[in-house]
Amino acid sequence: MDFTEKVSALAQAHNISINALRLKIGVGNGTLQGHGDPRFSTVVKVADFFGVPLDYFLDNDKSVKPAAGMILSQEEQDIIKSYRIASEKEKNTVATVLEIKRQDTGLRSEKVG
Q1: Phi, psi (rounded to 5 degrees) for 62
Q2: Which of 11, 54, 57, 94 is a good FRET partner for 66, with 20 to 30 A between their CA atoms?
Q3: For 52-110, how does the pLDDT look when each residue is reduced to its tens digit (9 = 90+)?
Q4: Helix (H) or strand (E) segment spanning residue 49
Q5: Are the C-beta atoms of residues 56 and 47 closer than 8 Å to each other?
């Protein structure tokens, strides 16, 4: 899939039109519709909007499809943005709550770092 196809797939998965996406991220007409190679800044804007890694757009392999866990809802994106600006104390509180939830549901904790 090329950039345009990947953007279309993500837009469809999030029920947003290409034109609405273009307006939300502030890019010009045709930018997301296959008129030449996109600027890096455009790729970054699209990746940030959908909460996918930049790597997703770097592989033009036709078989590459967004993994189900790679596409974040708007609510999930908002939560991540809030977490990124939280204080260390707030982040620790979130980590504690999530650890309790994992224990309650029997999920294994995977520590990073």
Answers
A1: -65, -25
A2: 94
A3: 888 888 765 544 455 555 666 778 778 888 888 888 999 899 889 988 888 887 765 55
A4: helix 40-50
A5: yes
Give the pLDDT confidence score for residue 112 in this predicted structure.
46
Segment 45-54 long-range contacts (CB within 8 Å, at least 24 positions apart): 46/7, 46/10, 46/21, 49/21, 49/24, 49/25, 49/77, 50/10, 50/14, 50/77, 51/76, 51/77, 51/80, 52/10
* Distance from C-alpha of 35 to C-alpha of 75, rounded to nearest angstrom: 31
Predicted local confidence at residue 83, as pLDDT: 82
31-47: string of b/e by CB count within 10 Å (b at 16+)?
bbeeeeebeeebbebbb
The DSSP output letter for 96 is H
Question: Which DSSP letter does residue 36 get?
Answer: S
- Contact predicate 38/3, CB 8 Å: yes
Distance CA 28, CA 6 (A): 18
For 93, the token pair is 């509180």
